[in-house]
Design a protein that fits this description.
The structure holds two protein chains of two kinds. Chain A contains eleven helices and 19 strands. Chain A is of the alpha/beta class. The longest helix of chain B has 16 residues, at about 210-225. The chains are: A alpha/beta, B alpha+beta. Chain B: This is (2Fe-2S)-binding protein.
Chain lengths: ~425, ~950
């Protein structure tokens, strides 16, 4: 793998960049792998990378139905944060955030992680009380979190609607300074390049059509490019989790819904943080290209359509203009959708399953991107050792049978 | 670029009416009918913009939505709009525009020097560097150089409307095909046709036609459209999105053509269109050719040169050269010569062209260069010269230099791309047509058809010979996406690095990600990728088209639902009285309620203390109208409620009330309230104020989805009744003074009893329940009587020292009493046993919602957070709702303070919380943590004021 650096960029400039090597191979599937990962998004690629890097398992295939990074990895708003409520969540996402902080150099790929700070806004007295509880929860975990007053918020987000005529008055909020945004495609590509370099076969345009299960064990995978034998399968397919798990006879408590994202036309820097709010429901940041990157609530009905429909687009942009009135004359450039996999408690599932050798990573809901490094690392560990990584013990599939939910939504009253 | 002194005849502008405008600080004149782009071209303004990445000088390149270069900052202040396409801005008197992404201006941009470093800045160079020490060190610089226009910083003075419309047939595009489709479908008078066109006037491509026959056809067609009652024509309206169920979104520009003179007038209207059938007559967009330095000002689409000539009367140059690979540009060139435009040469990369065209061109005095390609262009701020080579064969290497050619305008045509965006958004499949090198609609997914050029039906054969990039010369300066500075070499680099999926190439090179969303760059990019990867184009595929087709104001999506209209809010029936009493209003769910009633100069906490003391010592009045009031009725109502509440409802007598807890399927407490039995088969549920709607839905879900056999009707009567809470030791005395037929004496009307009757001549419902700990009457009268009841009670209470009190004061009072408030003192894990209701669960003989889940292992886990009182050990110590209780080691959370107030009646802090195993740990000391501070507290029984409850029966 040729190192990426300013020096090498200069060197290749001399030859007109005609000698850059390919970022990854395009191998044909082998008949047998030690581990097969279904899903070539961020989670699948990171899992393969950590299997090779930390678990010493390199005979690994990542099977991707389309193009790598083409699912939610390439469709989200690229926010990373660890400001969760429950300790088990905060521990996991803090681990992931730390991985983001060093990912550029770890993987020798500039993922453009920019810690612009993530601000949450409260719009009522009750919401502010919940925010205090939430912010304190983060602080107790030793994670950075700063409660901010209305005035401090006005200074940090000059374009925010602080008018007394606003329908909802900003009461206060809290900021996680280390939260930030990055380039989502780059994360997928960085893991793909690094995993490929360690010997992982990334096989694109290879759809899994069936799972072979015998005597309660995984035996292999049927694909559009032939059968592959393996003893271990890791599933990281986000919105299609229920469909793939059903191939192993497993019914998952997952609902798939479309979550939209959208960007405005690019403008010069005008928005310095990621600002989110549960009540006037939208979140906004500005990309390095200058686009305002906008998200909000999921479409209201279950769907596999990766587009999203008009009412939700309108509701999200209505919230944006209500909160930032001067954005009114900016123009929406592109809107799209991804299919998110939502568990009943809105927390992830990284777990063994009733089928031996079949491991799942799902339930990432609207927040899978920020979990990519830790999700990959813990799934790799779970696969390699056939027991959950300590960080994901609370996120096992059997928590639903035991009632031991990790209900972030109910605790903090906030989508995440 | 030549200044046009006099417009050509037959143009669709009015040369007699001049309009003054300013661009980059200089004043110019245009004429009525001009676009900003045509007016700039008329004034010979060559450089109108700078590219995104390299800040290359750019001139007008197209004439419509496809424009990639002429993006301007339009107007200033509240009217400021970044990235306005000069081609789409109709000129008006006093228009002000500035070039973007340049300093000091687009003519001489110091960042233009970046072009020198192009070699160092290939596609995605940023992923390969800027890692040391970290990206953020570099980011500021990169961010400032990126972006285009400047976001406005003043509020938008204009408004946006929304409108829904249903139509049997929606025709998108009022050019020839669209008009034909509209006229054909509207022959059935019952068929409502909506004809939509995005230009300033209908006509589409016909507007740029010099042919008299075309013009008269258009006039006739428009007359016919106007005569038909069942056709609605919307102009200045762009259909932007095609969604599921044949729903379209469109944006109508109502007053943009007036500029700031429109004042506060509605700017745009957002249409939601519900279509039976859709006909897409959206035309086609011409493609540029890809050759070295093809981005120089003066190099334009042939179709744009044609439109500027015939529609705006501009000749643009003194030596105009055409460069093409198909026949359409030849016809354009001949047309222009007929109009008196100096076309000096046609360069065609095809070795052979139909003899008739050649013949006519020669007769028109046009020099012909067949089998020839442009291998470079020269000129500083505008085009001066072309460098030509002869091609060895189709797509082959170059054969020999073919000299140079002086010119000031190059009109290029690389073929046509049908505008299939909406078709693709609708889910329709596209197919690649080799002969015309374009994607055309193949299979519809919804009720939609494409007609005319949008369907690849060109008036005359193109005889096109694709050339995706110029062979034999470096690809490094062959622009594909003009705005984002993507060149052919970028796409080749992507392919070399194994980014071979078309989506990868788009993301790696940013080809097609600029504000025109690839309208002119997509297909050329695909062609270059196909060549680089040795695959045919159909195998490469296309990227998915996304809404909006053309960028759309965020304000239009928001509409008028801003400020007070953003979400509906509810005011209390006695709102006017609260205003008069100086209430501090806050949002509680949808309701705007008095938090308390501070007197002038009085702090909020002092006001609450005053109100709370009055309730404890005399009497207070609270507007309690948001209290949920669900009526449940029917033969199975009792059975239904017995299943919904963990409490026993079977034994509830008529006229009696009972406190109840409601759980969800997971056994979590979601609501508490009082169930009143109005009749054997008729119940009134008082839910928490914020919960009326969600609990109503919860009940309906069980009735409609699970227990369809139960005969029960649920109605939400919350807003039909005004409810006032009269509370305090003098409450009975106050109420007794009012004219009514209910005996409110202690003997006749006990706690948790309910009475109906008349009060002040109106029907009324009175419940004796208490959330303050004092004797309380919750008096409901029809909502429109709320204000008069409020006034009557305040008047009757005056001798007793009555005060109005707010919801925060109520929270203080119930915290003193230790009454839990579901939602505040519970969280998403609270089960009944955590509130001390474990016994009730065990004693209830019947099943109820959530019961099963209570027996899961989690229900008996150690460390469950349980409801408790908290006593701060230090005198005068304060805490807040949101503070945490720490574990013994101080390392993690073992609960939260959920309610905390300073009690004026006890003169110390009263607090409630949920704390790990609190029910077994009463009396233990714990640590409270908030904002870095630690305090000691003791777990105590909730309710420190009047623990014996004597006041209730006073």
């Amino acid at each position: 793998m040729e190192k990426y650096s300013g020096f090498n960029l200069l060197k290749h400039a001399l030859t007109g960049h005609r000698r850059w090597p390919r970022s990854w191979r395009s191998p044909e599937p082998k008949p047998r792998y030690d581990v097969v990962i279904i899903g070539g998004g961020g989670h699948g690629l990171a899992t393969a990378y950590y299997l090779a890097k930390e678990q010493g398992i390199t005979n690994v295939a990542v099977l991707e139905k389309g193009w790598l990074g083409g699912g939610n990895t390439g469709r989200n708003t690229a926010v990373s944060r660890s400001n969760y409520f429950y300790p088990e969540s905060t521990r996991f996402f803090e681990h992931s955030l730390k991985r983001f902080e060093t990912m550029g150099r770890d993987l020798n790929y500039n993922i453009m992680f920019s810690q612009v700070g993530l601000l949450n806004l409260a719009f009522s007295r009750h919401e502010l009380e919940i925010f205090r509880r939430w912010a304190t929860a983060i602080q107790v975990q030793g994670v950075d979190c700063q409660v901010m007053s209305r005035d401090e918020i006005a200074a940090a987000v000059p374009l925010l609607n602080m008018s007394p005529h606003a329908r909802y008055r900003v009461y206060g909020g809290f900021m996680q300074r280390r939260g930030g945004i990055s380039r989502h495609d780059a994360v997928a590509w960085a893991y793909a390049r690094a995993a490929d370099n360690l010997g992982v076969d990334i096989i694109q345009n290879c759809e899994v059509t069936g799972l072979e299960v015998g005597d309660g064990r995984i035996r292999g995978v049927k694909t559009s490019r032939g059968a592959i034998r393996t003893d271990k399968v890791g599933m990281a397919v986000a919105g299609h989790s229920t469909a793939v798990a059903a191939m192993a006879g497993i019914k998952l408590p997952i609902v798939s819904q479309c979550l939209q994202a959208m960007v405005s036309e690019p403008v010069k820097p005008c928005f310095d943080h990621v600002v989110m709010s549960p009540m006037v429901h939208c979140y906004v940041s500005q990309s390095d290209r200058g686009e305002l990157v906008i998200g909000g609530g999921a479409d209201t009905h279950p769907s596999y359509g990766q587009r999203g429909n008009l009412p939700t687009t309108e509701a999200v942009l209505n919230a944006v203009v209500e909160m930032y009135p001067t954005f009114s004359r900016l123009k929406l450039m592109r809107q799209w959708g991804g299919i998110v996999d939502i568990a009943p408690d809105s927390s992830p599932i990284v777990s063994k399953t009733p089928v031996t050798g079949f491991y799942i990573s799902t339930g990432w809901g609207t927040g899978g991107y920020k979990a990519i490094p830790a999700g990959g690392e813990t799934l790799a560990h779970t696969i390699a050792h056939d027991r959950p990584h300590p960080l994901v013990e609370p996120f096992s599939l059997d928590r639903f049978a035991q009632g031991r939910l990790v209900d972030e939504g109910a605790a903090a009253g906030v989508a995440h | 670029m030549k200044r046009t002194a006099q417009r050509l005849p037959h143009a669709r502008v009015d040369p007699g009416k001049t309009l003054r405008f300013r661009f980059d600080g200089r004043t110019y004149e245009g004429v009525a009918g001009d676009s900003l782009a045509s007016a700039l071209l008329a004034n010979g303004v060559g450089v109108v913009g700078r590219s995104f990445k390299l800040h290359r000088p750019r001139g007008v390149f197209g004439c419509g939505k496809e424009e990639a270069n002429a993006l301007v900052q339009l107007e200033s202040g509240g009217y400021s709009e970044p990235n306005a396409r000069a081609t789409l801005v109709p000129l008006y008197e006093g228009l002000e525009a500035r070039g973007q992404n340049a300093w000091p201006n687009v003519r001489s941009d110091v960042f233009g020097a970046l072009g020198v470093f192009k070699r160092l800045l290939p596609a995605s160079f940023y992923y390969k560097t800027f890692m040391w020490p970290n990206w953020q060190r570099w980011e500021g610089l990169v961010r400032r150089l990126a972006g285009l226009g400047i976001a406005p910083t003043s509020a938008d003075p204009q408004k946006y409307l929304k409108q829904n419309v249903h139509a049997d047939v929606v025709v998108v595009g009022a050019g020839r095909s669209g008009l034909e489709a509209a006229l054909a479908t509207s022959r059935d008078p019952a068929c409502r046709v909506l004809l939509i066109d995005e230009q300033e006037e209908p006509g589409g491509g016909l507007l740029a036609s010099p042919a008299a026959a075309d013009r008269s056809w258009l006039e006739e067609a428009l007359r016919e459209v106007a005569a038909r009652d069942n056709i609605t024509l919307l102009c200045r309206t762009t259909v932007n999105g095609y969604y599921d169920n044949n729903v379209l979104a469109a944006l109508e520009r109502l007053s943009n053509h007036h500029g700031p003179a429109a004042g506060g007038a509605v700017r745009e209207r957002f249409w939601r269109i519900f279509a039976g059938r859709v006909v897409l007559a959206t035309g086609a967009i011409e493609r540029p050719l890809v050759f070295p330095n093809n981005d120089r000002p003066g190099i334009m689409l042939a179709s744009a040169v044609r439109e500027y000539c015939h529609r705006y009367g501009l000749t643009l140059g003194e030596r105009i050269v055409f460069y093409t690979n198909n026949d359409s540009a030849w016809r354009t060139a001949l047309e222009l010569v007929d109009a008196g435009v100096p076309v000096v040469a046609i360069i065609d990369l095809r070795p052979a062209v139909e003899s008739e065209l050649r013949q006519r061109a020669r007769e028109a005095g046009i020099a012909l260069h067949l089998g020839t390609v442009v291998t470079d262009t020269r000129g500083r701020s505008g085009l001066r010269r072309l460098v030509l080579h002869r091609l060895a064969g189709p797509g082959d290497a170059l054969e020999a230099p073919a000299g140079t050619l002086d010119c000031d305008v190059l009109a290029m045509s690389g073929g046509w791309t049908p505008t299939v965006h909406l078709y693709s958004q609708s889910g329709g499949l596209l197919a690649y047509r080799d002969s015309d090198a374009c994607f055309v609609p193949e299979r519809a997914h919804q009720a939609v058809t494409a007609v005319g050029r949008a369907n690849g039906e060109f008036a005359a054969p193109l005889n096109l010979q694709p050339q995706w990039l110029t062979p034999g010369v470096s690809a490094e300066h062959q622009w594909v996406d003009f705005q984002y500075d993507v060149t052919a070499s970028d796409i080749q680099l992507a392919a070399r690095e194994n980014f071979v999926s078309v989506e990868h190439v788009k993301r790696y090179t940013t080809n097609g990600m600029s504000v025109d969303q690839g309208k002119t760059s997509n297909v050329n990019g695909l062609g270059i990728l196909a060549l680089a990867t040795g695959r045919p184009i159909p195998e490469v595929g296309t990227t998915r088209f996304r809404p909006p087709y053309h960028p759309t104001s965020l304000g239009a999506y928001a509409g008028i639902e801003l400020g007070a209209l953003y979400t509906p809010f509810q005011q209390l029936p006695a709102h006017a009285a609260h205003v008069a009493a100086g209430a501090l209003f806050e949002d509680y769910g949808a309701w705007q309620r008095p938090a308390c009633y501070p007197r002038p100069g009085e702090e909020e906490e002092a006001a609450m203390a005053r109100e709370a003391r009055a309730v404890r010592s005399a009497v207070g009045l609270l507007d309690y109208s948001p209290l949920g009031k669900l009526e449940v009725r029917g033969p199975d109502a009792r059975e239904f409620l017995n299943r919904m509440y963990l409490n026993n409802i079977r034994t509830l007598e008529v006229g009696a009330a009972r406190y109840g807890l409601m759980l969800n399927e997971a056994g979590i407490v979601i609501d508490d309230g009082v169930v009143v039995c109005l009749a054997r088969d008729h119940f009134l549920l008082h839910t928490t104020s914020g919960g009326a709607t969600t609990i109503h839905q919860h009940l309906e879900e069980w009735l409609q989805c699970e227990w369809t056999d139960l005969e029960v009707i649920v109605g939400n009567a919350t807003t039909q009744w005004a409810t006032l809470m009269l509370s305090g030791p003098k409450a009975r005395a106050v109420l007794a003074q009012l004219d009514g037929d209910i005996d409110v004496s202690r003997e006749a009307f006990g706690h948790m009893q309910y009475r109906e009757g008349r009060l002040l001549g109106q029907p009324c419902r009175i419940l004796r329940a208490s959330f303050t700990g004092e004797v309380s009457f919750e008096i409901s009268v029809p909502a429109n009587c709320g204000l008069s009841l409020w006034e009557a009670l305040m008047q009757a209470g005056e001798p007793h020292g009555i005060v109005p009190f707010g919801i925060e004061t109520l929270m203080l009072l119930r915290t003193e009493k230790g009454y839990p408030h579901v939602g505040a003192d519970t969280d998403g894990n609270t089960m009944p046993q955590d509130l001390g209701w474990g016994g009730a669960v065990a004693n209830k003989p019947d099943d109820f919602v959530g019961r099963r889940s209570l027996s899961q292992p989690v229900g008996s886990d150690p460390g469950r957070f349980q409801f408790t009182g908290l006593e701060l050990l230090e005198a005068d110590a304060r805490t807040v709702s949101g503070a945490h209780i720490l574990t013994a080691d101080g390392e993690s959370t073992a609960g939260y303070v959920t309610s905390a107030f300073h009690s004026p009646n006890l003169n110390r802090t009263v607090a409630l919380g949920i704390v790990a195993d609190a029910r077994d740990r009463q009396g233990e000391e714990v640590t409270v943590f908030y904002a870095g501070q630690r305090q000691r507290a003791r777990l105590i029984k909730p309710g420190v004021y009047d623990p014996a409850g004597e006041a209730l029966n006073g």
